[in-house]
Design brief:
Number of strands: 7
CATH class: Alpha Beta
Strand order of the largest sheet: 3-2-1-4-5-7-6
Distance between the termini: 33 Å
Number of domains: 1
CATH topology: Rossmann fold
Bound molecules: S-adenosylmethionine
Helix content: 25-40%
Largest sheet: 7 strands, mixed
CATH superfamily: Vaccinia Virus protein VP39
Structural class: alpha/beta
Order of helices and strands: HEHEHEEHEHHHEE
Number of helices: 7
Shape: globular
């Protein structure tokens, strides 16, 4: 998974770099590769993340434990509903996990409340599901026929401003969201 997603990780780090983030929140951190890059390349000092898979949680915990002196680490076993209720993050990232959020409008609204005024939220959508996979996705926006446009519209309803977007690869589409 990590090797396949390298391009999306690099793209996300590039798009977060201009805000010089000190803190990052990642939803669905998987193996923890993006958070590792954020510590290495962006020098973030606070790292918070949620992922509901015990395997991913343990993999990321092991990967990141060597950085515990460099950055404050707070990884939680939990899905998108377990993101912190309070706090401010300069960077928020969610790569290839939007399709699993059962109530995306609620999650987007919570994330909007957690983004610092000059911060950025990079949302990377997984593209090209087969029809049968698409039908079974928990996220109603991803189940629909126009995930990118509908995700952008939902993000705007949540109070985000779209700062840019780009096809990253055949299977990934990145959207950069800010507060203004
Ligand atoms: C395709 S993987 C992507 C992992 C990582 N973001 C990456 O790009 O390498 C999807 C991840 O989303 C997590 N996930 C599944 N349902 C989720 C949810 N409701 N909220 C947050 N993460 C979820 C999975 O456990 C998995 O780690």
């Amino acid at each position: 998974m990590a090797r396949l997603n390298q391009r999306a990780y690099r793209w996300t780090i590039d798009k977060l770099r201009p805000v010089q983030p000190k803190s990052i929140l990642e939803i669905g951190f998987g193996t923890g590769h993006l958070l590792q890059l954020a510590i290495h390349n962006l020098n973030v000092s606070k790292v918070v993340g949620v992922d509901p898979s015990e395997l991913m949680f343990e993999t990321a915990r092991q990967r990141l434990r060597r950085y515990r002196k460099k950055a404050e680490l707070d990884l939680k076993l939990g899905d998108d509903s377990a993101i912190p209720a309070q706090g401010q993050f300069d960077a928020i990232a969610a790569l290839h996990c939007f399709q699993f959020w059962p109530t995306p409008e609620e999650t987007l609204a919570k994330l909007r409340g957690l983004l610092s005024p000059n911060g950025r939220f990079v949302l990377v959508l997984r593209r090209r599901y087969s029809k049968s996979v698409a039908k079974s996705l928990p996220n109603p926006i991803s189940r629909g026929n126009n995930e990118i446009a509908d995700a952008c519209a939902a993000a705007e309803r949540a109070g985000f401003v779209i700062q840019g977007m780009q096809g990253i690869s055949k299977t990934s589409h990145g959207i950069i969201l800010g507060c203004g």
